[in-house]
Specification:
The protein is α+β, with helices and mostly antiparallel strands and about 210 residues long. It has six helices and eight strands; from the N terminus they run ββαβαββαββαααβ. The N and C termini lie close together (about 5 Å).
């Protein structure tokens, strides 16, 4: 399995059908290698969490997830590697937005993607809130467990927020334009290499 990238449109959680937000999915490394991505490198590990579901609850949990992940995600199976390297890999079921699903939008210019995330919101809340919570959940898993692609987007979106606060005084009012956003996130951000909505608990490396 390859990197975690913000390349999936969200019409039902962090956006709307008319203005989809952006959420992450996992990409096969072999497919990522065929893409033009301004995050030119990926990390060796993709961090996440595995859950062991009680047998009596499996059908209930899957029915819930099938609805929650209905917007382009499908069930796939992959091995995950525990952070404790003395443990053997575990075969897990994962919801992934494959490249052939209708919500897959592919890599975007990081500046435009950050602006898109900053502006988007849906029934589950602001798109930027999703991004910030994802970043924190990944950072909290283990030492060095963050995701450079996610961290880069967080820095870019927060730069846009700070620009908006300075412009409006209290952070409310008319949105800043793309040119101003580009200035806010352009020179102050160092490009970094890149290597899901509820947070994750048992530490594993995938």
């Amino acid at each position: 399995m390859g990197p975690r990238l913000e390349v999936q449109a969200s019409q039902d959680h962090r956006g709307t059908p008319d203005a989809p937000g952006r959420v992450v999915t996992l990409i096969e490394r072999s497919f990522w290698n065929t893409l033009v991505d301004e995050h030119a490198t990926i990390e060796d590990r993709v961090w996440g969490t595995a859950y062991r579901i009680e047998h009596s609850k499996v059908a209930e949990v899957q029915a819930y997830l099938d609805i929650r992940e209905i917007n382009g995600y499908s069930i796939q199976y992959t091995d995950i590697y525990p952070a404790d390297q003395s443990l053997r890999p575990i075969r897990c079921m994962v919801y992934i937005g494959l490249p052939n699903n209708p919500q897959f939008v592919g890599p975007q210019d990081p500046r435009k993607l950050a602006m898109h995330i900053w502006r988007s919101k849906g029934p589950s809340g602001d798109n930027k809130e999703y991004l910030y919570m994802l970043d924190k959940a990944l950072q909290d898993l283990d030492r060095g467990s963050g995701d450079k692609h996610v961290e880069d987007l967080v820095a870019r979106v927060k730069a846009i927020e700070e620009k908006q606060v300075r412009k409006e005084g209290v952070g409310l009012g008319a949105d800043i334009g793309e040119d101003e956003a580009a200035k806010a996130i352009g020179t102050g951000i160092t490009k970094i290499g890149s290597a899901d909505e509820q947070e994750e608990v048992e530490k594993v490396q995938q």
